[in-house]
Amino acid sequence: MPEAKRVMLLDSASLYFRAFYGVPESVTAPDGMPVNAVRGFTDMVSTLITRYRPTDFVACLDYDWRPAFRVDLVPSYKAHRVMTETADGEPDVEETPDLLAPQVPVLLEVLKAAGLCSVGAAGFEADDVIATLAHRHDQRGELVDVVSGDRDLIDLTTERVRVLYTGKGIAKIVEFTPDEVRQQYGVPAEHYADFAILRGDPSDGLPGVAGIGVKTAAIVVSEFGPIEQIVAAAESGDKAMSASVRAKVLAARDYLAVAPAVVRGRQDVPVPELDTAIPAAPADLDMLAALAEQFGIGSATGRLTTALEKLASLR
After folding, report:
1. Where does the 5'-3' exonuclease domain lie (predicted)?
2. pLDDT digit string (tens) for 294-307?
3. Residues 47, 19 contacting (CB under 8 angstroms)
4. What are phi and psi for residue 289, nearest 5 degrees?
5. pLDDT tens-place string over residues 210-243
6. What is the Cα–Cα distance from 296 to 300, expressed in whole angstroms?
7. d(Cα 108, Cα 117) in Å, to the nearest integer?
8. 39/252 Cα distance (integer angstroms)
9. What's the pTM value of the predicted model, to 2 decimals?
């Protein structure tokens, strides 16, 4: 029988930022260019492929880390991450560290030479690309592993979609299944985003509902479901909702009306059908060898080649 399809969707920026800060800047190419993020990211990919044995792989990219459609709804969305202003006083893009920016094209070239798919979509975050692809493959009855250090993606978890949370590093991945989400947060996985909306998320500039903390948010979501139903219960005077919670929800109606569209990943991103299959060996050995020599990353590309070959031998 053919092997069951298991698609690994990588939140690429989450991993290469972690690699950049986790591997010393003293790791350099022969010309002195830092390649710590390239080496660390490549090693992470090798480890993930070896440990989880996916049949397919997509490195999902941020083409817009702060999309206008989200900022228009919640102006504070990621506002604290805006590092500069343009000459007109408008917010400029988030600054990638000077030593990281030149490394991103290199690590994408490594993926290309290895034959591993990468994709982004204009006007969307990697989260949206991941949500679209996770939903697509889930609907087809295929297994999905979402790899990210961003808790927002936990709400993608289903019986077929597992979130591999890397917040504490690749060596300490937390595997979120629906049972694990409920055990850790006290809410159904499909309503994790609603839980996050209520409690707020300073890392994304989401204020939350004043006076509602983690415990209360979990109780309210477990009892009433998604934000739309929580607001409806408050507006109708549902006796199952305490007067205190009702008052807090009603006071935050404007925020709650727009927050779901900001927090929930889009599942309608125009991502084309992709060749996502992991090859039995690097797609372009000459290109990979050239990258290894130019950037002094032969050990990392060697481990990636070994991971691909080992995976092929197990099929």
Report:
1. 5-279
2. 999 999 999 999 99
3. no
4. -65, -40
5. 999 999 999 999 999 999 999 999 999 999 999 9
6. 9
7. 9
8. 46
9. 0.90
Q: Which amino acid is at 120?
A: G
Closest CA to 144 of 188, 176, 111: 176
Q: Hey, how many other C-beta atoms are within 10 angstroms of the C-beta on 94? A: 13
Domains of the chain from N-terminus onward: 6-186+266-310 (3.40.50.1010), 189-263 (1.10.150.20)
| Cα–Cα distance measured from residue 61 to residue 11, given in angstroms and rounded to the nearest whole number | 7
Report how far residue 288's alpha carbon sits from residue 106's, in angstroms, rounded to the nearest whole number: 11
Torsions phi, psi for 263 (to 5 deg): -85, -40
Residue of 267, 279, 44, 261 lying closest to 137 (CA atoms): 267
Both tokens of 260, joined, read 């779901």
Report the side by side order of strands in the sheet with 174-176.
117-119, 56-60, 6-11, 143-148, 161-165, 174-176
| CA distance to 67, 183, 278, per residue, from 121 (Å) | 11, 34, 21
